[in-house]
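User: Show me a protein chain along with its predicted structure.
Assistant: Here is one chain, sequence first, then structure tokens.
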Amino acid sequence: MHVEVLVEEPSAEAALRNLLPAILSSQASFQIFRHNGKQDLLSRLPSRLRGYRKFLPRDWRIVVLIDEDRSDCKALKKKLEKIAFDAGLTTKSRARGAAFQVMNRIAVEELESWFFGDPTAIMAAFPKIPEKQFRGARYRDVDSIRGGTAEALEAILQRHRYFPSGMPKIEVARVISRYMEPERNRSRSFQVFRKGILELLSLTAAKRGEES
């Protein structure tokens, strides 16, 4: 099995290069295609999915990952679903438990929410940050951190004397994700993503069993 993953920026690519092997194990190969931001991904997605429709092998799946960025999550998901439908591809949401070709997922509100979901990984990557940093009401629901999760993470890093001139998002994503353990992540958004990947694998395995 093979998974094609479309992301909006290099930091998401850097994180998924570490996270996907931990989720997929050895059950599937993958390739990640990054874009130059959210609008670039959305503008290119219709033609890209139409292109996939022409040749997509039966054991290939497409995953689209995009940040919510404080936009209307339901409206964004509806837009992604329509793009796939118009391209002639079946999404996980429309398949309702049956086999599908495209899975659309939204990081709420940004990729950095996934990092906050695993504070142990943040502390392993940046040892000067103490455990008490992540106590308190603000971090109980990491998908609801106000003021932007990227900004919140940058503020924490700078408070503890990392990156005084600005957070390098790609480097930070790469380093933190190296220590992340998918099963313990407290971000609901991340767990929805992880569950979708696991269901994708189980449905494919079941399909193979039916055909053998």
